[in-house]
Amino acid sequence: MTALTLTQGDITRVSADAIVNAANSSLLGGGGVDGAIHRRGGPAILADCRRLRAGHYGKGLPTGQAVATTAGELDARWVIHTVGPRYSQQEDRSELLASCYRASLRVADELGARTVAFPAVSAGIYGWPMDDAARIAVETVRSTRTAVEEVRFVLFDERSHEAFAARLRTTSRDSRT
């Protein structure tokens, strides 16, 4: 069974086999977590992303999918890039967000990663409400079959940490009843 843990802080300073990047579809860096990972990880990550864009992902990485690159200067072996959906009140995109977590775990399994650090995908600039992002993340990771031994949610601030902590408490109670 996969252990789920929480850390409040900067995902670029976490030690894990794989760090998940809440990427944009271009794979060429951006703001938020994406920009931070590219800056701290150095040019090797961007070089790998450019190779991906020159090959199979010429039009970019589709929403809900995941792909791995080197981790460059990060304290990890790999970065798993996934593109979360933008939140919409008019359209339920929950399945696309859940797909980000499942696809990232599938890539982690293919790589042989045993520890994976996730940010709150889509909960930043893409506008997903934090409580719902936490619900989808925790429920999806808990229900996905994986060889990953530990999933660590690395949450930037106290509000997001508390949303994930509340969801973990709720799902722990639900699984005991």
TrEMBL record:
CDD domains recorded: Macro_OAADPr_deacetylase
Coiled-coil annotated residue ranges, if any: none
Organism: Streptomyces lincolnensis
Superkingdom, taxonomy of origin: Bacteria
Record's protein name: Uncharacterized protein
Gene3D superfamilies: Leucine Aminopeptidase, subunit E, domain 1
Entries under PROSITE patterns matching the protein: MACRO
InterPro entries, A to Z: Macro_dom, Macro_dom-like
Signal peptide segment: none
